[in-house]
Amino acid sequence: MDTTVGNTLATQAFLARRWRRFALVMALFAAGVLVFLVLNVALGSVNIPLADTVKVIFGGTGSDDAYSQIIRNIRLPRALGALLGGGALAVSGLLLQVFFRNPIVGPFILGISSGASFMVAIALMGSYLVGATFVSPLTLSAAAFVGAIMVMVVVMAVASRVRDIITLLVIGLMTGYVASALSSFLIAFAQSENVHRFVIWTMGSFSGFRWDQVLVLAVAGAVLMAASFLMAKPLNAFLLGEDYAKSMGVNVRGFRYGVIFVSCALAALVTAFAGPVAFVGLAVPHLARLSLGTSDNRVLIPASILAGAMITSLCDLLARVLFAPVELPVSATTALFGAPMVIFFLVKGKTTI
Questions:
Q1: Domain count, the chain
Q2: How confident is the model at residue 311 (pLDDT cuts 50, 70, 90)?
């Protein structure tokens, strides 16, 4: 009797410590998101006082009307775009890592980035053939989204016929290579000006984000992230294998479609507006797992959203201020952050799902 009571008390103490750790990590991630949001808005070629920054962010008016205009029309949409995009990419990467049970899978591993790049290449290079001298950012965003969705449709069609997850992964990679090869053909016959613009787009950037883009990213991203959270329990079951997931009542076929659709749509949404942003979806889920010390996706999904938003916001800030007035591509700073982290996880053997 005493042993049973002792075991129960020990279990309760362990659960209490674990949830305190979860709460502390979540609070730190949330604080980091807020801090980098304010810094992203305050710092730049024009440094804005923190007091004015906080006032305008929360709906007030700054001491200088020029500050208010810079914040509302330029910096705040970009900062929010980086936060939302980072959270979306992190969740996309987490879903794919669990689905493939592979710790080094990212959201673009299925060829989404290459599909988006191919359609943007058509929009930029093809404009020369029809005599167009300008391609609007909206057209590029639409083209990127269409390209990413086209690849997603191909992968989902394959998923209906192929049961082996590794085979599906390889087919996604091959689809990406085909799209990259077609993009290279277009580049070979394009004008140098369009090639330059295409190369800049492929580097990824949250520069020029507009409020309508923020709205689309927020609404669509919220729906997709909510869908990912609803899949948290099936994801936990899937970690133990398809047979175990079936025994727990998971519709494996529908689950496969759901994971592929949500992860691809999240990555496509960000790519359409910001271009390919590397390593966030690959590295951030590992950071969340290591910080929380758990593989429970009910906790990892919200943690990945916060960590992805925080890290991407930090990387976007560094891209703007490190060599100002020259701005680095955001993928350069995310790669400098993500690549060493992934190498560290591989060397230390901490890449388990």
A1: 1
A2: very high
Residue 11 lies in a domain: no
- pTM of the full structure: 0.87
262-301 per-position pLDDT tens digit: 988 888 888 888 888 888 988 899 889 888 888 889 999 9
Residue 5 lies in a domain: no
Return the number of other C-beta atoms located less than 10 Å from residue 65's C-beta.
9
- Token pair listed for 295: 């593989």
Q: How many CB atoms lie within 10 A of CB 211?
A: 13
Q: CA 140, 145, 150 angle in degrees (round to 5)? A: 125
Range of the domain at 247: 21-348
User: Which CATH number do you get for residue 63?
Assistant: 1.10.3470.10
Work out the burial of residue 82: count CB atoms within 10 Å of its CB; fewer than 13 is exposed, 13-18 middle, 19 or more buried.
Answer: buried
Distance between CA 34 and CA 269 in Å, rounded? 23
DSSP letter string, 96-109 = HHHHHT-TT--TTT
Q: Which amino acid is at 208?
A: G
Whether the CB-CB separation of 277 and 330 falls below 8 Å is answered with: yes
